[in-house]
# Entry
Amino acid sequence: MSPSSGKADLHIHTCYSDGHPTVRAVLDHVARRSRLQVIAITDHDTIEGALEARIHQHRYSFAIIVGEEVSSRDGHILGLFLERRIPPGLSAAETIVAIHEQNGLAIAAHLFIDWPFPSQRIMMQGVGRRISTLPFDGVEVDNSTPFLRPANFRARHYNRAFRQLPEIGNSDAHIVEAIGKGYTRFSGTTAADLRLAIESGACSAH
# Structure
């Protein structure tokens, strides 16, 4: 990556789903305590928090992407660059089609995990080996949720062996302190730069 490369965290939750912080708390933390150039608000099965964040875009120097962590029947999928909510309960294939119909990007989240956390209202579930046959735009191989290191290793190894999708790093933050602990490095600083980097495979997960 060039010296002008940026950092993005594309998997952040707010109180609109199972995250603790308000949207403004997330935005203020990113502005004051991180070096991120791009973030995506990706609440479970809603874009309301992301739309609220976009209203405040003019107050912040970093770019805000409207996203959603969609609960497909086959596992969780991140939809990025959305304008409308993707309904839960579709198959993974149908979910990807719905994301692409909005000219969005579909990212496979926490690929090899299926874990109901007692403190969360929503199960954490990945699509697993389905990435080998479905038209995902990228795969999350670094997720900074505690205890996911083995699952991250497996996701990276499987992707490189069987698919070679662009690799994404994210925090999956549910508290502000976690934001940016996992991130994607890309050339440039804008959301458009990030999208181009994902589409061309010129990004890296950290």
Notes: Residues 149-162 form the longest helix (14 residues). Residues 23 and 52 are 7 Å apart (CA to CA).
